[in-house]
Amino acid sequence: MSVIAVEGLSKTFRTRVRGTGLAAALRSLARPEWRTVPAVREVSFSVEPGEVVAFLGPNGAGKSTTIKMLTGILTPTSGTARVLGLDPARDRTRLALEIGAVFGQKSQLWFHLPPSESFRLLGAIYEVPPAELERRRSDLVERFGIGPYMDVPVRKLSLGERIRCEIAASLLHAPKVLFLDEPTIGLDVVVKREIRALLSELRSRDGVTIFLTSHDIGDIEKICKRAIIIHHGAVVVDESMKTLKHRALARKYIGVKYAAPANLELPGLSPVKRTEDAGSFVVDTRRHNLQDVIRALVDRGEVLDLTVEDEPLEDIIAEVFQGRSAEEARGAAWAGGEAES
Amino acid sequence: MTCRGPRRPAPLGIRTALRKYSTAALVSLRNRLAYPAAFAGSLLTYGLFVFVFSRIWASIYSGRGDIAGYDRAGMVWYFIVAEISVFGFGHFYSTLSEDIKSGQVAYLLARPYGFTAYHFSQTMGNTLGDCLVLAAEGVLLGRLLGGPVPVTSLVQGAALVLSILLAGCLQFFLQFAIAMTAFWLEENAAVYWIYQKLALVIGTFLPLEFLPPAAAAAARWTPFPYLSWAPARIAVAWEPREALGLLAAQAAWTAAAALLCRGVFAAGRGKITVNGG
């Protein structure tokens, strides 16, 4: 049985249209106008136990709306969602006992109290028996290294310390599924690395299914095995990280540095960046033979350094977004043209 | 690995529910006590109001024995008790209302608790400390500005405490219901403003007995006198049979307001929209 099963899930919001000026305001009072905004459109996917899935998309793509439907906060307009076999909208309270959720910078810890108090409250809210709560608490305190912060008011903790406490707090009731909405936002490199290691351990040691939204490519590369990309409310890519990265194989980033100034003009290939003695190229291996390009570069002078890298994941994802936007724009233009003719 | 269904059944045992909501109340109280200085504002305002009104009543009562059955000392004590539930139980409406307007309420819903019950426990935990501190200040000021404490028996004291608690519960449910109107109204501050003013005029600043008979009779059919008039009346004009009636009316209005909250919340919940994503 899938942990998460989503079929044709859609959500539309109805918002009031407001014109500018006094006349429009008065008109709006007498005859309000409404606009329907589709936030999520016919989304379908499933997540198996123990998977770590990145749910990606540009701002406004519908990521958080989808997560909120999966956690029972929002009711879908149409379609079905099942999490751990439950309907999130109908069984919100029951489902909440089985899942954990960390919503970016929305804290679940009491700001003026030490985390130990919030842990006590969350343990009671999630109906964890006192003895089990104590055991879980000790385990999480040790694993997350938050012992020194447990009795310090949350307002006095750094963001990294607080996020560690937040994630530990969301695991007190041993959830089977963890929804993370931008968990490493605003954290420094070291803390991000620690959080990623902890999340990876959660999956491997406890078998927790993790559903993560993030704009941080590092989070996605280091933790996730699969990516679902959503754009304008619809799923545009759903494939393993390996397959997604495979797209990068078609393009290589080559950097070269010479001992002395060199001519970097190659037939049919211009450097994307260059100085007198260095340059970098993006090589489409479907059009250029990689070996020929490297040989040509080596022939231009004494090489001090030469690097060949895959296309960064960030660029691949950006390209998916841009490609989809361009397709939609073309589709709209075509539809417009058809309508006019 | 296979995925099993939820491990815990849905219905809440009484002990589990008690632990859940009493912990919420205790943590909330502890949060309030984290800043003892925060009591200073309400202590000062309450003290100032009591002092100003005691002077006003002294001037009004100069040369008169009593008005509508209340003497000068009685009026000072009336105001002291009536204001406890107004100041003590606070104005949590604005926080909840803002949470609804901004969509933040969505995050509060992602928890396994009864939304209204959790907020009730939290508000009670948060405000009971205030009520106790204000009551202590009230007794001190009453002795200085009014006269002897009008509560003379244990039964009267118990009835007064119960009445103040019921007033707090009623205050909670009414404010909660008003906050819920934010699901439909983009700006609901006016609704709260009207509620607040009616609560002050009907029973807080003036006892119902001071109103014209028709207005007083009409007011008895609204929940407003039971927010402050009922406890104040039990404190300064103790009559067991009347007190029982007042407590019963408070309990009935509290139950009605709780039902109203339940309905309004259920209807409003489907209207949650969340920005962002």
Structure write-up:
Chain A has 341 residues and is an alpha/beta fold. Chain A has 2 domains: 4-243, Rossmann fold (3-Layer(aba) Sandwich), CATH 3.40.50; 244-341. In chain A, 38% of the residues lie in helices and 27% in strands. In chain A, a hairpin with a 2-residue loop joins strand 8 and strand 9 (234-240). Chain A is globular. Chain A starts with a strand and ends with a helix. The relative contact order of chain B is 0.13. Chain B is mainly alpha-helical and 277 residues long. Chain B has helices at residues 14-33, 39-60, 72-88, 93-102, 105-109, 115-145, 154-180, 189-204, 213-219, 225-236, 240-269; strands at residues 66-67, 70-71. In chain B, strand 1 (66-67) and strand 2 form a beta hairpin. Chain A binds chain B through residues 1-3, 13, 15-16, 39, 48-50, 59-68, 71-75, 84-86, 91-98, 101, 103, 106, 108, 110, 112-113, 117-118, 120-121, 124-127, 153, 176, 207, and chain B through 1-3, 5-8, 10, 12, 16, 19-20, 23-24, 27, 30-31, 34-35, 104, 106-107, 109-114, 118, 186, 270, 272-274, 276-277.
Give the DSSP E fraction of chain A (strand runs of 2 or more residues): 25-35%
**C-alpha-based Rg of chain B, rounded:** 21 Å
CATH architectural type of the largest domain in chain A: 3-Layer(aba) Sandwich
The count of domains of chain A is: 2
In CATH, the topology of the largest domain in chain A is named Rossmann fold
Mean pLDDT across all amino acids of chain B: 88
Task: Give the topology, please.
The complex is a heterodimer of chains A (341) and B (277).
Chain A (H helix, E strand, L loop, with lengths): L3 E14 L4 H9 L2 E15 L4 E5 L6 H8 L7 E6 L8 H5 L2 E5 L11 H11 L4 H15 L14 H12 L6 E5 L7 H18 L2 E5 L3 H7 L2 E6 L2 E7 H6 L4 E8 L14 E2 L3 E7 L5 H10 L3 E8 L2 H28 L1
Parallel strand pairs in A: 3-7, 3-8, 5-6, 6-7
Antiparallel strand pairs in A: 1-2, 1-4, 8-9, 10-12, 10-13, 11-12
Helix pairs in contact in A: 5-6
Chain B lengths: L13 H20 L5 H22 L5 E2 L2 E2 H17 L4 H10 L2 H5 L5 H31 L8 H27 L8 H16 L8 H7 L5 H12 L3 H30 L8
Antiparallel strand pairs in B: 1-2
Helix pairs in contact in B: 1-6, 2-3, 2-6, 3-6, 3-7, 3-10, 4-7, 6-7, 7-10, 7-11, 8-10, 10-11
